[in-house]
Amino acid sequence: MYDKTVRRRRAVLVLLVVLSLILLTAYFGEAPGGGLHSVQRGFLTVVSPIQDGANKALKPVRDLFGWFSDTLHAKSQLGELRKQNNRLRREVVAYQANEHGYHELLALDHLDQLSVNNYRPVTATVVAKSPNIWYSTVKIDKGTSAGVQVNDPVINDEGLVGKVTLAASDGAVVELITDSEMGVSARINGTGETGVLQPKVGEPNDLVLQYLPANTSVTHGQYVVTSGTVSSPDDSLYPPGIAIGQVSSVDEESAYTSVNVHPLVNLHNLEDVQVLTYVPGSKPARLASVLANLPAGRQSAAGGAEGNQLASTEAAGK
Q1: Is 208 inside any structural domain?
Q2: Are 270 and 126 in contact (CB under 8 A)?
Q3: Is pTM beyond 0.70 here?
Q4: Which domain holds residue 304?
Q5: How far apart are CA 122 and CA 142, in angstroms?
Q6: Interaxial angle between packed helices 283-293 and 305-317, expressed in degrees from 0 to 180 and rounded to the nearest 10
């Protein structure tokens, strides 16, 4: 019974193929006004309105799927462009710093300079944020068990985030650069003029770089980076050259020039950060020890060139 059914189906298939070949041969062999052409035109007359209606009905669905596809593709491109922008920004900051400091480095090439490469970065995830619009602190999921210590600098791929102010075994509190108690010794990249960077009063998303010399030449859009020095005993010794923000405006009315700075890091959407940690005996550890052992007056002076050279010389000699 099964064999008969199979043979019957095969015979029907062969018959249909032969019939199709006969119809195609007849169709292409007859004149445009022939019977088969007339049947085709009649069939298209009936089917075309149905096809057009189906196309119009399904167009919103096709457009929706196309919108999702374009959106996902655009988001992927946006993420890649942001990474490229951050990388290019770091290269521009490094180029400007190297260009300005070329002659100084020739004169001081015997000194062992501090850099980000002297630190051991520990990647951490932000697990909590302070419950106010200032976002002055965040909590991360790495602590002393991973080598994180108080005053360790914290960065991400955009620039400086802040510093560690409290560290437990499996977590730490990071004080952001917009916190009211923060102060970072910073300089105008490309000129070397140094001041103290602090949050701008009444502006939770902006900073102000104060105590610059009155004749400081600053232009809109210049980058502000860490100076690699400290201005007070409880400062973090940030490695020099970490990008912080860009100059948005200049105030020259007082005896000292001050500039408004917009942070590069989006502090409202922090997810992953890197804590720059160091091990005992490393260069950052030796510099921190030198600064901690200086008298209070000399420690504050470390914010200038004399203190910076003293700390670097001590590190080079150990």
Answers
A1: yes
A2: yes
A3: no
A4: 113-317
A5: 8
A6: 120
pLDDT mean over 103-130: 69
User: Quick one: average pLDDT of 102-113?
Assistant: 41
CATH of the domain at 120: 2.40.10.340
Residue 249 lies inside a defined structural domain of this protein = yes
Query: Rounded distance, CA 294 to CA 146, Å?
Result: 29
What is d(CA 240, CA 108) in angstroms, rounded to the nearest whole number? 16
Asked if the structure places residue 39 within a domain, the reply is no
Contacts of 240 (CB under 8 A, 6+ apart): 97, 113, 114, 115, 225, 226, 227, 228, 229
Burial of 9-48, coded b for 16+ CB within 10 Å and e otherwise, reads: eeeeeeeeeeeeeeeeeeeeeeeeeeeeeeeeeeeeeeee
The pLDDT of residue 19 is 76
Looking at the structure of the chain, the number of domains it has is 1
Q: Is 18 domain-assigned?
A: no
Range 161-166 average pLDDT: 94
